[in-house]
Write a structure and sequence with these properties.
Elements lengths: L9 E3 L2 E3 L6 E2 L8 H17 L6 H10 L9 H12 L2 E5 L5 H9 L2 E5 L16 H8 L6 H20 L1 H16 L2 E4 L2 E4 L2 H4 L2 H9 L4 E4 L2 H5 L11 E5 L2 H7 L5 H7 L16 E3 L13
The protein binds phenylalanine (PHE) and cobalt (II) ion.
Length: about 300
Amino acid sequence: MDTPRKVEHQQTDRGYIPVYATGVVEQPWDSYSRSDHAVWDTLFQRQRELLPGRACAEFMDGVRRFGLGDGGIPKFAELNKVLRSATDWEVVAVEGLLPDEVFFDHLANRRFPVSWWIRKPDQLDYLSEPDLFHDLFGHVPLLLNPVFADYMQAYGRGGMKAFALGPEALMNLTRLYWYTVEFGLINTVDGMRIYGAGIVSSRGESIYSLDSPSPNRIGFDMERVMSTRYRIDTYQQTYFVIDGFEQLFEATKPDFTSLYAKLRTLPVHAAGDVLDDDRVFTRGDRKGWATGADT
Ligand code: PHE
Ligand code: CO
C-alpha cells in the first residue's frame, strides 16, 4: 500500500489556506523514520515529567492504562484493543484536518480521528495544526473515562445538529469544544488540574495555563462559553473551569436549539473579557496579551 498523504494547510501570499482531507487511512507504521519515533519519545518524556500534579487523575490514568511510553510511536491497532474493551471507542488514522461534518460523524460513531504523521524535530514547541502527538497523547487517554467518552459522542451528534442549523450554531458549539475538550481546566479536591488536549500536548501551555498570572480562570457556564471568542495563535487569555466531567455531560444534555436562538440575541465577548456574573477563580493581569482580533 502507498504511504498516505500528509495534508497540511498551505501558506500562500494570501495567508494560510486550510486544506482538508476526508478519508480514513491505514496507519503507515513501517514508514515512520527513526527521527519520527525520536520526536514522539522526546515529546512524551517532556510531558511525563511535567504532568504529574498538573493533569487531572483521569488523564494520567489513561496514559498509564494505554501503556503509552517512550518506545516510539504507538501502533493504533494496539491502542484500539484497550480502547474498544474499555469504552467501545477506537482511533482511526487520517491525513489531516477533516471537514466539520466528517469529524462529527466520526465522533458520533465513537471513532476518534488521529493524524498519522508527526511533527518535525524543529516543531517540538509549536505547530499550527494537529499532528499525531497532539491528537493521540492529547485526546485519547480521556476516551478511557466512561463519562468523557460519552460526552465526546454526544458532542459529535450535537455537531451534526448544529451543522444543519447553520454557521452561527456551529460557531457556538465550536467554542464549547475549544474551551472544554481543547483547553479545559478542572477544579479537583487536590487543586486546579488540566484536562484539555491542547494544553496537555503543549509543554509551554501546561505550565502557563496553571501557573501564569496572565490568563483569567473562570467557572464554566454554557452560555458564557458559547458566546466567547478564542485565540488560535497564542496561549489562551481565558480558561473555563469545570467541577467534574459529570457537570459537562449534564450541561450538554438539553436540546440546544433554543439556546442557539437565544445566543443570536446576546453580545459576543472577547477572549480576555471578565464579566460581572463570572465565577472568577483568578483574574488575569493581562500581561503579554496580544492585541488584535480573536476568532
Ligand atoms: N445537547 C446538545 C444539542 O441538543 C448536543 C450536545 C451534546 C452538544 C454534548 C455538545 C456536547 O445540540
Ligand atoms: Co485537538
